[in-house]
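re: ur question from earlier - yeah i can do the single chain one, its not a big deal. heres the input i used so u can compare w yours
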Amino acid sequence: MTTASFLYAATRTPFGRFGGALAEVRPDDLAAIALTGLLAKAPALDPARIDDVLWGNANGAGEDNRNVGRMAVLLAGLPVSVPGSTINRLCGSSLDAAISGSRAIASGDADIVVAGGVESMTRAPWVLPKPGRAYPAGDTTAVSTTLGWRLVNKRMPAGWTVSLGECNEQLGEKYKISRERQDEFAARSHNRADQAWSDGFYDALVTPVPGVDLPRDEGIRAGSTAAKLSALKPAFRPDGTITAGNASPLNDGASAVLLGSEAAGAAIGLDPLARVAGRAANALDPRDFGFAPVEAAQRALRQAGIGWEDVGAVELNEAFAVQSLACVDAWGIDPEIVNVRGGAIAIGHPLGASGGRILGTLSQVLRERNERWGVAAICIGVGQALAVVLENVNA
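and the output i got, formated as C-alpha cells:
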C-alpha cells in the first residue's frame, strides 16, 4: 500500500551569471541558504522531524565535495540527527532528489523529506589527472569541471562524447528546427521571465542571498527580440543555429522543495500545494539527450492516469531552444502553456539546482492559473531525462 506524496513549499536563490554576483559564494553555502529559506516557510516545523535531506549536484569536484547535501544540513544549523545525501544525475539531479524523496514517502520509509540542489559553475575547479607512476616527465593539462565531458574513457564511442552544443545541432538538423524559431523561443523566455519578476511572481519563490545585491535572476535580458538575437554568431558550428542567445548560460544557484505525506501536514504547519501524481525516467542515445524528455513525460502522464489534454502547464528546462522546441513539437501541445513565467535560457541553468526550480515554479504556476495538472521535465546529458506530474490540490 502506497501513501500519497505532497509538495508543501518551494524556494530557490536568484540565479547568478557565470562570474557574476554569486561568484564569491561557495556552493555549500548556497545550498544552506536555500535550505534555510525553505524551512523559513514552515516555521511550525521542528527540523528534527525531517527524515532525510536529498540534494542534487552535478559536479562535486570542488567546494561541493564530501556530500554537499550533508554539508548543507550542518551549515544551515539543523540538528546533527538530520541525515543528508547527494544525488548526481547531472542536470536532473535535484528533480531526481525530489523523485527519490517522494518515493520514500510513498513507500512509508519517510514522512517528511527536503529535496533540493546546488551548483556553482563559476567556482567549479580545474582538475589534474593523477599520474599512473611517480614523477612523469611530460606535461599535464588542467581540465575544467564547469560543464560537459572531462577525462573521457577512451573506450567510450567518440560520437557519444561530442559537446552538448554539437548534439543539439544534430537534433536541430534531424527535426528541421530553424534558427529563427530558436531565436523567437529564446526572446520569449527572456520577456516572460522579465514580466514574471515585474509582476511579483517570483517574490514568494526566491530566497535572497545574504550580503549579495542580486534582486532578480542575473541573466534576464528585458526587451529581447528575435531580431536582436539573430545578430549573434553560432557557438558550435560556423554555419550552425545555436548561439549564446538561444541556449542556457552557465550559472550559480540553489533550489529546495519540502515534501511530505498528507499526515505530515500537521507537523509541517502548512497545507499542501500539490500532489506528486507521476514520475518517470527515460534514456536513449547520448547524442539525443535533448529529446529524452518526450518519453519521460509520456511515462509520467501514464502513471498519473491522465493525458496531454488534461495538462494546463508545463515547465520544461530550456537547456537549448532547439531541444525544447523538438519536445514541444513531439508532444503536440499548445506552446503557450510551456514556461509561461520564463525558462532557463533567461533565468539560468545551474545544473544541480534546475530540477528543483522547475518543480517549485510549476506548483506556483498551477496555483496562479488555477490549473489542475502540470508537467515538469528536464533533459540530462549523456542521454537521459526525468519528468514529474503535479496535481494542484486546490484546483
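The chain has a mean pLDDT of 97. not sure if urs matches, ping me
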